[in-house]
Amino acid sequence: MKGKRMTIDRRRGALFEASAFDYDIYRPSYPLEVIREAVSLSNLRSSSRLLEIGCGTGKATLPFASRGFMIDCIDPGKRLIDFARQNCRAWPNASFTRGTFEEVRLEPRYYDLVYSAQAFHWVDPGIRLRKAADTLVEHGFLALLYNYPGKTKDRVVPLLNDAIEEASGGMLKAWDYGDEIADWTREIGSSGLFRGIRLLRHQWMQSYNAERYTGLFRTYSDFLSLPRPARRKVLQRIREVIQGNGGSLCRSYDCVLIHAQKA
What we know:
Largest sheet: 7 strands, mixed
Helix content: 25-40%
CATH class of the domain at 5-147 and 177-204 and 252-262: Alpha Beta
Strand order of the largest sheet: 3-2-1-4-5-7-6
Oligomer: single chain
Distance between the termini: 34 Å
CATH superfamily of the domain at 5-147 and 177-204 and 252-262: Vaccinia Virus protein VP39
Structural class: alpha/beta
Shape: globular
Low-confidence stretches: 1-6
Strand content: 25-35%
CATH topology of the domain at 5-147 and 177-204 and 252-262: Rossmann fold
Order of helices and strands: HHHEHEHEEHEHHEHHHE
């Protein structure tokens, strides 16, 4: 649940630092099928160098690091990076730098793949594609990964969406991610910096009880930006709806990979 990407308040990115513990526990990772596709499309080798923008607690870092690639990871959150280091402690090939992508100094024409999972929209649109292209080797690749809400047959989900919208005073609404995908492809395609844009979708499911679903909501920036009384009301309604309808729900995700090659 959130608004269109083009209207996002990028200052909200700082909210994730305070919810680092919940983020590490409740935010989903990414299907291995999508990771394998990103590796294959990017023609990665054991010697390839990767840059991750906005690593968070390492949800997307680990599946790449476990394949042996050298990865430089950037995130502005100290607690987030602390979790990421701990989660990737078995993989010294992953290194971490605290800072924003805009401010961190990076070697030009150095990386074979620049990727970002659930984070590229937080980067200044006037900088993100140009700097990503500058850090890539000739014909290197850009990959954006997003877990979007998919269509589900679980009858509890629409009940829950309605309850959340009502409890938040209309601030949190279910949404269709199609416009956001169109925005990304338009931005990348019109930049002149990348070519061969490809979109891949992988649907997967995740079961939640009331505790896990309220934990998931405590990691959403639009929820965290609500006044405290509204947050309490939303969480209470989530518990009531789930517990009153069997105690669990099955949520569908569409993991979308947006992939392009440096022109």
